[in-house]
Amino acid sequence: MNSQRMIVCGKCGAENFPQAFRCQNKNCNEIFDGSAGNSIVLGRNVTRSSQSIRANGSQRTPSFHAPLPAEWIGRPPAVRQRPEVKVAIVGFSDEAVVRQEPVPLGQVRAYFLRPDASTNEAAGLRLAGDLWKQYMPRARASFLYLSDGEPTSGGGFFGDDKEAGLQEAQTVKQMGARIATIGVRGSTMDFDHLRSIASTPALAFEAELGGISRVFMHATQSMTSHRWGQTGAEFVVFVIDESGSMEEDNKKAEVEEAVNASLALLRSL
Ligand SMILES: [Zn+2]
Description:
The protein is α/β, with parallel strands linked by helices. The chain has 2 domains: 1-32, no CATH class; 70-268, von Willebrand factor, type A domain (Rossmann fold), CATH 3.40.50.410. It has helices spanning 121-135, 161-174, 191-197, 212-224, 251-268, and strands at residues 7-9, 15-16, 40-41, 57-59, 85-92, 96-104, 140-147, 178-184, 204-207, 234-241.
């Protein structure tokens, strides 16, 4: 990925590194999100776009169409000290459930998705944040958030399910977590919403059936390319939509494959 893509803060105008999730101008500290631009589409019929993105966190040259780097597979052993990395998996439907308690990468079990009921995004993000604070509060937190639809619960009886999700995302981002979103195309998908959940436009991805794993790997790579392990321990939480619609088509199998492939990539870093 080229290193020229800087995020211009919409509030103070400061230039930030492409993976910045909050403005590095200490007097500003604006939290960025992905609503500034297009999600990163990695489909077959993608046309390049080169327009600037501007808003909360704007980004130049958002095109993102690179082939998967060959070094993802068979990467030679790193010379540097391996960072301490722990991983957890959270599934959410009506409520959020820990599918994998936080453990070192070598101890992670294969992930199986259990489709059920509604989409309580707020609960999923909240549980991810809770695990982080409970198990590894000093680590940098990265959340890989996948959903195939908009939130349908979590807002309470009179509340707004989407707003609840957004507020929860804002809370964990304020605490310092970075969120990458992977949206799976479908009739209920709301990419605008997912972009607002993401930490930056560079971390908002669109996937379609047949290509979920590939996009998920890109998201993992994007999340881990920025100073991975250099600031200390890393804590990664997969936050996976396990709503009933995951039973449709081949989604369940694809998402499982994506998460397990992403785990393999993390182990290779
Ligand atoms: Zn700023």
